[in-house]
Amino acid sequence: MFYVQETAKLVPSRYDDYLEAAQSTLIPLYDDLGLRSVAFWETVPTQGYWPEVISLWEIDGLDAYGSILARQYSDGPAGRRFRAWLELLADVATSTHGLVMRSSRESLTLEQLQQQGISVEVCVHETVKTTPNMSRQYAEHVSRHWKPIAERHGRSMLGVYSVTWRNAEVINIWALDGWDALSKATETMPGDRDVWAWTEIAMSLRQDWDDRILHALPFSPLRPA
Q1: What is the second-level CATH architecture of the domain 106-216?
Q2: Which residue of 116, 138, 156, 171 shows the fewest CB atoms closer than 10 Å?
Q3: pLDDT of 94 over the 80 cut
Q4: Residue 122 belongs to what H/E stretch?
Q5: pLDDT of residue 183
Q6: What is the average pLDDT score of the chain?
Q7: What is the CATH number of domain 2-102?
Q8: Please, which residues have CB within 8 angstroms of residue 41's CB and are 6 or more apart in sequence?
Q9: Taking the domains of the chain in order of start, what are their residue ranges?
Q10: How far, in Å, CA of 16 to CA of 10, rounded?
Q11: 62 or 183: whose pLDDT is higher?
Q12: How many helices (H) and strands (E) does the chain have?
């Protein structure tokens, strides 16, 4: 399965305007284009960047992505709606950054996340720089080796994604069992030998990483009412 991640850096005074526009304009437009909304998060300013919103969308593959782009840049109704969205976005955001990503084999689809009732209210978002040409291998190692260990310490894997058209970038997104899972993991992980074994594997495959803590916006799918 493939995913699109979009990161929007917002004008601080227009934060609420962006949220309103995302609900009223962006989500209906992307839904019509064939992107399924998985989550909308705001970055927690004490561990990340603010004001910043990260959205995650599911698509059926690169063929579907090509079709989406064709409609976005057409002269038809979808193209006109997309250009109107960009004009609006220019007023409320300073920049955006998009990634097309391929999920690992163990990553959960939107349907599976819904069936399992996994909440995205509190998440850890990790951007990993791997050694060259090792992004796909790293993503699969996370799925096979780190996932069962992380789950013992209060994390549920939403997905591990190798970034398409880049050979050294992976995105990991983990749902936490509430805010207190942050401190619990800090207390329990150091005594887990499997954590140290995974760390040795990970350090041989990656060069650097950057973690954010995310909080789901009120209109985000997979967020408890």
Answers
A1: 2-Layer Sandwich (3.30)
A2: 116
A3: yes
A4: strand 122-130
A5: 85
A6: 94
A7: 3.30.70.100
A8: 53, 54, 55, 120, 123, 125, 214, 215, 216, 217, 220
A9: 2-102, 106-216
A10: 10
A11: 62
A12: 9, 8
